[in-house]
Amino acid sequence: MKKVKVYVTLRESVLDPQGSAVMGSLHKMGYDEVQDVRIGKYLELVIGDSERDVDALVDELCNRMLANTVIEDYRYEIEEVVSQ
Amino acid sequence: MKFAVIVFPGSNCDLDMYHAIKDELGEEAEYVWHDTHDLSGYDGILLPGGFSYGDYLRAGAIARFSGVMDEVRKAAEAGKPVLGVCNGFQILTEAGLLPGMLMRNKNLKFTCGTVSLKVENAQTLFTNQYKEGEEIRIPVAHGEGNYYCDDATYQHLQDNNQIVFTYAEDFNGSRNNIAGIINERGNVLGMMPHPERAVSDLIGGTDGLPLFRSIVKQWRESHVSHA
């Protein structure tokens, strides 16, 4: 069994209005050193043992549904889950 | 002419769409649940607005994998008119039946009101009852209608006359004020504004009626010529 942590973020070339609003607010609070804020999504998947290659599977899931690659990029980490 | 109004869990403009077709246009309409696997009996497909599957993940991201979407794709490939309004437009882009993507509005707000649209292309099967460049008043209600596409896609849309409606002024941050686009073949239209809410003077205007009349006119002409 594996736990997959997927991070979906807007592509660099795409304006992130939510991130801009949060950064504006942080600046108003006095945190001038914050130079950029980008908001994304975090998903955790638990994948059961299978013959399929996990990377290929996760790429397929991301490309087909979890991310819209017109505006989003994704990356992920895979952790082995040891049953207790 | 017989229309299918596709109903997803969370659709909420399906009744308006049905009313527009049945009562104002005088054509046939039926509600079709999202797990239907046969749309062969319908001449036109309507994807209404709403919040299918709660807009979870992204607007339209889950609805596009509904059973009925294979049938919508087949209908599009067969050349039948397919109209997606608001959430329907979002579903069509997620499904890849239209290019680009609808992002969160630039001002981050869900915005309701009536806007002026410019008819950029009056040669389509959805707009032949409008005049090119005509300004029409159509209600809008969305939080994610900010149309985005890359430069190459935008160029392609322009070269092929696929931009059908634009906002008269910047409304939600959409690239070049795009409010509605059509596929290359010209039978799949997606738009954020709601023509089905502008079909009677009682509810504030009739500028949406010509869109539905255009579809019916084209359909009748092609079916008479085939007779």
Automatic annotation (TrEMBL), chain A:
GO terms for biological process: 'de novo' IMP biosynthetic process. It holds the Pfam family PurS. Gene3D superfamilies: Phosphoribosylformylglycinamidine synthase subunit PurS. The keyword Cytoplasm applies. GO terms for molecular function: ATP binding; phosphoribosylformylglycinamidine synthase activity. Its EC number is 6.3.5.3. It is found in: Cytoplasm. It is an enzyme of class 6 (ligase). The keyword Oxidoreductase does not apply. It catalyses: N(2)-formyl-N(1)-(5-phospho-beta-D-ribosyl)glycinamide + L-glutamine + ATP + H2O = 2-formamido-N(1)-(5-O-phospho-beta-D-ribosyl)acetamidine + L-glutamate + ADP + phosphate + H(+). It comes from the Bacteria. Keywords: ATP-binding, Cytoplasm, Ligase, Nucleotide-binding, Purine biosynthesis. One of its GO terms (cellular component) is cytoplasm. Pathway: Purine metabolism; IMP biosynthesis via de novo pathway; 5-amino-1-(5-phospho-D-ribosyl)imidazole from N(2)-formyl-N(1)-(5-phospho-D-ribosyl)glycinamide: step 1/2. Its main location: cytoplasm. Part of the phosphoribosylformylglycinamidine synthase complex involved in the purines biosynthetic pathway. Catalyzes the ATP-dependent conversion of formylglycinamide ribonucleotide (FGAR) and glutamine to yield formylglycinamidine ribonucleotide (FGAM) and glutamate. The FGAM synthase complex is composed of three subunits. PurQ produces an ammonia molecule by converting glutamine to glutamate. PurL transfers the ammonia molecule to FGAR to form FGAM in an ATP-dependent manner. PANTHER family: PHOSPHORIBOSYLFORMYLGLYCINAMIDINE SYNTHASE SUBUNIT PURS (PTHR34696:SF1). Belongs to the PurS family. Part of the FGAM synthase complex composed of 1 PurL, 1 PurQ and 2 PurS subunits. NCBIfam families: phosphoribosylformylglycinamidine synthase subunit PurS, PRK05974.1. This is Phosphoribosylformylglycinamidine synthase subunit PurS. It comes from Planococcus citreus.
